[in-house]
Fold:
Amino acid sequence: MAGPFLRRFGMVFLHGILPLVAGGAIYLYFRRGSIVSQRLQQTAGIRPYRTEAPFWQTVWNVLPDFLWAYSLASVLFLYGHWAKLPSRVIFWLTAVFLTIAEAGQALPGSPFTFDIRDLIATAIAFFLSSWIHYRPFTRKQPETAWH
Structure:
């Protein structure tokens, strides 16, 4: 049986690192017009995958934000459990942090682009991560997530 460190590392890898890497790869390879994909094409000749189907364009644009938000929320929920922080505190701090990070892109002068679909994807990722990792308003925490 794996020790506590390996179990924790496995949880962080599966719910934190893997979604972040997958989101980064999708952003680099599928997202139309990203600065990084343009640079890859100019320097290495790597051409990103293109599709004209509106559904897939939306998926490739929103999925990296969803995976980033899921990754961050999951790591914060896991840390909150391991540090024995009050569940409602970590729930609301994570919700506020993710909302500010995404909505902050709408501020004037921000180099990022705000999109309501990204905000919706962030909310879905937050609630999915909360459902998997944390039950802030119940007494019983999901046993499978911690053991």
User: Anything to note?
Assistant: Confidence is low (pLDDT under 50) at residues 143-147. The CA atoms of residues 28 and 112 lie 16 Å apart. The chain has one domain: 4-146. Residues 4-146 form one domain.
